[in-house]
Design goal:
By secondary structure, the protein is an all-alpha fold. The chain is built from 5 helices and no strands. The chain has one domain. Helix 2 packs antiparallel against helix 3 and helix 3 runs antiparallel to helix 5. The radius of gyration is 17 Å and the shape is elongated. It starts with 10 loop residues before the first helix and ends in a 6-residue tail after the last helix.
Length: about 100
Amino acid sequence: MTTSERPPKSPVQQVLGQWPLASVLLGVFAGLVVVAFSHWRTGSTLIGLSITMGGLFRLLPNRRVGLLAVRNRALDTIVLLGVGIGITVLAWAVPALRN
């Protein structure tokens, strides 16, 4: 084995290496749970911030972001930041219903 080769990662290391994607998915899931309990603005904000966080994670090197890297870095970052900020802005721009 040469010095440039790395030993294979264990299954635990492979799973822990997916923390950026897991944290985004966990935030989106938590936002959906909050929405299900009739707090749509808070839940939508949590979803938008989680996706925005994914866009910021995508700025990390490819070997650090794992499965969060789908396309090239610039496109992933622009799309995730755009969607995340868009959801957050819309969550606060929609007026609340008054009964």
